[in-house]
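Technical annex, item 7. During the second reporting period the consortium partners agreed on a shared format for inverse folding records so that results from different sites could be compared directly. Each record opens with the tokenized structure and is followed by the designed sequence. A conforming record, contributed by the partner at site C, is shown below for reference.
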């Protein structure tokens, strides 16, 4: 197998190999260069691409695009073939399923001589984060009833945006704005309109503070979605008071942990005073959430199979080719990198 550059560009690397596919190769075909084995000591055979995670050597084989000239577009079995391993080249691409646009990542396809775009290209770096924070103080809540009253400051996760495996960090803060005599107050944390934690009823004073924070693990989505919740709350009491934290908890085993993720998921806080009195009231100063979604898990085959970036769209006129192209495959100008990726 011989390697050489065409012209002076250091970004082009070509090789001469032998067509060992058992059939005819055409200009633009994608081939693998066989790894050296006992049966094939020169390692110079071009074969049909094979992607097999159980055979790691197939993921490490160099790949090339069959070149050719205007007068020589096809190569019979056992004929020498010049292929481009690195650089700009016209390569066979299947654009029938997913339209090819400039900067599309193009992937090898098992047992095929063409590249293909994908609807969802692997995201190797980013982890999407969804979040919302409301820091506009609520109106006073709890002064008109002895039943639970909700602060008008809420946040919601949009319908059908959660995914199994998501983690949701939820928090809220507030204080007792007004209190009457020895009346007590308790705080309730709600996730998707279901109570997941309630404080102890405490004889409150003006300025007593409360807060809570909990984590939600989404284990299933849909109308009967499921969550696991754990966390804690503090207060309402004076800032330095040694109050016992209150538990925030829910489990898949409890009906309360069934969460419909097909609708908006509301997060809010309630307060309950022991006496309905105009001098009782709680104000929420902040409430928010942050959804943390892990970076996409990229299959090793996908990662190694990404070989090219399109530098033209499929609306461009296709260069001349031989008979392998069909209704959905044609030659596209791409930047190709068929060298092994470690």
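Designed sequence (site C submission):
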């Amino acid at each position: 197998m011989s390697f050489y550059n065409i012209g002076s560009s250091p970004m082009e690397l070509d090789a001469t190999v032998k067509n060992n596919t058992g059939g005819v190769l055409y200009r633009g075909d994608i081939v693998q260069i066989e790894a050296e084995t006992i049966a094939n000591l020169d390692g110079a055979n071009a074969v049909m691409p094979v992607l097999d995670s159980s055979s790691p050597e197939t993921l490490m084989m160099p790949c090339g695009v069959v070149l050719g000239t205007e007068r020589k577009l096809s190569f019979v079995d056992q004929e020498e073939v010049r292929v481009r391993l690195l650089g700009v080249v016209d390569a066979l691409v299947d654009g029938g399923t997913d339209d090819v646009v400039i900067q599309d990542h193009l992937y090898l396809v098992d047992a095929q001589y063409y590249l293909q775009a994908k609807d969802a290209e692997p995201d190797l770096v980013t982890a999407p984060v969804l979040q919302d924070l409301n820091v506009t103080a609520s109106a006073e809540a709890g002064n008109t009833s002895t039943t639970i009253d909700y602060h008008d400051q809420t946040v919601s996760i949009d319908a059908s945006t959660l995914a199994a495996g998501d983690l949701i960090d939820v928090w809220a803060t507030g204080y007792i704005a007004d209190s009457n005599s020895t009346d007590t107050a308790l705080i309730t944390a709600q996730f998707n309109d279901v109570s997941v934690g309630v404080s102890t009823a405490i004889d409150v004073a003006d300025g007593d503070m409360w807060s809570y924070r909990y984590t939600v693990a989404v284990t299933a989505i849909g109308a009967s979605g499921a969550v696991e919740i754990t966390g804690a709350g503090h207060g309402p009491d004076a800032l330095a008071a040694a109050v016992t934290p209150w538990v925030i908890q829910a489990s898949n085993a409890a009906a309360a942990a069934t969460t419909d993720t097909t609708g908006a998921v509301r997060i809010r806080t309630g307060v309950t005073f022991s006496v309905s009195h105009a001098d009782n009231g709680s104000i929420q100063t902040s409430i928010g959430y942050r959804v943390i979604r892990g970076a996409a898990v990229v299959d090793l085959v996908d990662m190694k199979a990404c070989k090219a970036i399109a530098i033209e769209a499929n609306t461009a006129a296709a260069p001349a080719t031989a008979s392998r192209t069909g209704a959905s495959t044609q030659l596209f100008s791409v930047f190709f990198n068929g060298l092994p990726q470690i």
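The first helix runs from residue 57 to 60. The mean pLDDT is 82. All partners now use this format for quarterly exchanges.
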